[in-house]
Amino acid sequence: MDKLGTELPTEITRDIGDRIVSLKKEIAALHEQTPPRDFTEKQVINWLEYIKAAPDEHVLRLLISKAYANKEGTRFESTLVPQILGGDTQI
Question: Can you say how many angstroms the Cα of residue 80 is from the centroid of all Cα atoms in its chain?
Answer without folding.
Answer: 14
